[in-house]
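Supplementary material to the annual report.
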Amino acid sequence: MVIPSNWYNIVPDLPAPPPPPLHPGTREPVGPGDLAPLFPMELIGQEVSGERYVPIPQEVLDVYRLWRPTPLIRARRLERALGTPARIYYKYEGVSPAGSHKANTAVPQAYYNAKEGVRLLTTETGAGQWGSALAFACSQFDVECQIWMVRASYDQKPYRRSLMHVYGATVHASPSSLTGSGSKALADDPASPGSLGIAISEAVEVAAATPDARYALGSVLNHVLMHQTVIGEEALDQLPELPDLVIGCTGGGSNFAGLAFPFMREKLAGRIKTVFRAVEPAACPSFTRGVYAYDFGDTAGLTPLLKMHTLGHTFVPDPIHAGGLRYHGMSPLLSHMYELGLFEAVTRSQNECFEAGVRFARTEGIVPAPEPTHALAETIAEALRCKESGEEKVILTALCGHGHFDLGAYDRYLAGGLEDHTLPQDRIEQALTELPG
Amino acid sequence: MVIPSNWYNIVPDLPAPPPPPLHPGTREPVGPGDLAPLFPMELIGQEVSGERYVPIPQEVLDVYRLWRPTPLIRARRLERALGTPARIYYKYEGVSPAGSHKANTAVPQAYYNAKEGVRLLTTETGAGQWGSALAFACSQFDVECQIWMVRASYDQKPYRRSLMHVYGATVHASPSSLTGSGSKALADDPASPGSLGIAISEAVEVAAATPDARYALGSVLNHVLMHQTVIGEEALDQLPELPDLVIGCTGGGSNFAGLAFPFMREKLAGRIKTVFRAVEPAACPSFTRGVYAYDFGDTAGLTPLLKMHTLGHTFVPDPIHAGGLRYHGMSPLLSHMYELGLFEAVTRSQNECFEAGVRFARTEGIVPAPEPTHALAETIAEALRCKESGEEKVILTALCGHGHFDLGAYDRYLAGGLEDHTLPQDRIEQALTELPG
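Predicted assembly:
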């Protein structure tokens, strides 16, 4: 088993190209010049690339080698506990240094920036998975890393913050007084718990205003999804049999895309008949209850307009939602593919997700991060359907990270303190009234 | 690469047998009957076995398979950062469900107990590595698990506690009012922060008094060390070249023994010339500054007398010591082998250990637990000696766990808050006056 030597770009294999991002003022497609203050040219090129394969640079492979190839494991003990005839495989990305799939794109992003002379990368982080992956990647290429971490997480997840410090990054609680947008948020509410939207604005503002600085994003964009395809390419190579069903959780979409795209290539070419299923939280259901429309990627409206499934850029999930995947929008590329009917989408509530996480830990050992418990809840439900029908379905799922930094949420679940509720339709409709244009 | 099918018992290969444990009253060697209230017969048999190889049961292999074989990685990025001609390999045990090598013995201990009809296993845990490994193992064999966790850790490491809960274990802060010894400790000091000694007494007391209950220990004993030899057997198989030097940290000794014993077998048979080096904290230096004498394994004096390198069973490291490996004694088997001259021992101070941990994280990605940073500090020092001498030494080290639950200590190190000091000789001498008999 070896690490793939190329990333796979699914765009040229699609029956129709995805709609381009638009400039919010002119409503014209954005060009490379619009993105140059934020991203290095190599990544801008990958974002719009028409090549099916992009070679992975040797310098990136040398870092991937620290944890790749990742394990592909048959969940025999879970199968036995469920009494299912289904065969369940999981691809485990939690072996990466910061514990999730995010390192697969953090490393090339840090590398291309370093290669183009960038000395500082800025980013935002919510729970801290992306921030710690980028901090690790920057430590490998001697790039300074500054991270705006949502204040509520900064206070509640000190260990994620410590992990970024160990990798040498600077972590600011957001909103901070270091930026205009942070200062404004603090003026509005000195006790603001922060939000991803504010943190993005702060990181973007500093990157745009600092010489030799750029900004890095951990999901949503085409080049990010492409970097994640190492997951699916490895799984294709490792699986002893072809999957009937591939299941992954979706927040911005990079984890699901990373596992699914190489299998979708095989399906688009008529070589396999696999079904694909995205799982999102009932508390933040952009595929299943959002609209497909042009919207901003951030709350403050600083980004280009992206055509995507969105709950409205002002939508924020209820604070009772503990399970990650809190993004209001969705990868434009995946949104386009969903419209093309290339995969299904379902939702799961947080208590059934944590129940699946505990069940998985007690059979397979690994405590999953809250995000992949969504995929596990769906996988278990499917395996139990197979138990009823007797079908020997082959299921492949993405276990994109471990839950060592999320045990507070497990604690609350085990103490019976997590709530499920159905998101009221009027909250979605309210947020959708604020769509641009 | 496959998982070994046998554990290796080094005892029959030694030039002389280790001295037996003695009954503290009679000073006669303890027999199986003395141990039966605490351990299942299969483990008592392994403790005194004269067989060189003990087959690993299929049921244990089926669980080992969740994370074994573990990776053997060449630390190329660390080598490059150090500019050393040495070649550094590390065997990484942090991929186990609870994140350390402890699962290698927790699984067979839970298995043999379950097989002999035991329904409850009790144990103590300090930092939580052992407790969480046993909780995981018990979840695999439907054995109830009750853990007495030192109060100070219970309060300061809530995530370790949560991890045990996820695996279904019950965790008591020790001292607890559930036992006689706990109640006595609480009567003496209602605000007692607890100690490993008290926690052992509580776990032993409950195991001895409860039908179908037994006690489990995570290091020190012969059968525990033997279970860990899967580490070294795999490494022997995985290494592309023979090591000149094997380095491991020692607290109770099971991690060092697990990696070193299979290589020592090869050396005792004259097939290799490897040098072995144990590394202990300057704050708890049992090999290098203790005496070789019969002493109790616990603070309260409930265990048989063990001949070992000890600082005295009343010795407690300074509270400023953050780096794990706090046991006053040492494995009797390793102590005997040290007297036979089969390996070297050195000490490292905690600031140089955490410095090595950060250096390792920023080059190899993994944040090590505080315990293996002792071995990493020694490995780095050796590699820098090679840089001066030009020697292309092959170094193998044991990276026995990750530091995801120890980031508080890294925080304090990065903030400059860790202290080093030399342990005063009179503190050791004072503790040694309390040796039994």
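The CA atoms of residues 3 and 69 of chain B lie 5 Å apart.
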